[in-house]
Amino acid sequence: MSDDCLFCKIANKKIPSEFLYEDDTIVAFRDINPAAPVHLLIVPKQHIRSINDLTVDDQAIVSRLIMVAKQMARQQGIDKSGYKLLFNVEKGGGQVIFHLHLHLIGGWKR
Ligand code: 5GP
Ligand code: ZN
């Protein structure tokens, strides 16, 4: 855990938040500034800065992020209508919180 990292604090319950999902390694919660009717963030409890910092040892956590996103899409009722999964990578890629997270975005009427 990194002391100056917002998502470390949320994922490790230093800041109270409502989790829609939690297991030993991952939490999911709603984005504070949703870009769509459903906008969740799937976040590892372990501090990893970005996709650029992944090592071979992190492969299991990345596949878990995607599996949890799939499960949350179904739980939110957007699996059939469809959704986007997004990793922003570093400043130029739009990343503003430098703790790895997967965006689950969907729920549009179209
Ligand atoms: P990034 O651009 O780094 O991929 O995405 C960071 C996301 O975190 C943004 O969509 C932003 O709205 C969200 N966010 C920033 N601060 C907070 C917070 O304190 N709580 C929650 N739930 N989401 C946050
Ligand atoms: Zn962190």
Structure explained in plain terms:
GO terms for molecular function: catalytic activity. 21% of the residues lie in helices and 21% in strands. The chain is of the alpha+beta class and 110 residues long. The chain is globular, with a radius of gyration of 13 Å. Bound molecules: guanosine-5'-monophosphate and zinc ion.
Bound molecules: guanosine-5'-monophosphate, zinc ion
Shape: globular
Helix content: 10-25%
Number of helices: 2
Quick one: biggest sheet? 5 strands, antiparallel
Name given to the CATH architecture: 2-Layer Sandwich
Total beta strands: 5
The total number of structural domains is 1
Strand order of the largest sheet: 1-2-3-5-4
Radius of gyration: 13 Å
**CATH third-tier fold name:** HIT family, subunit A
Show unreliable segments.
Answer: none
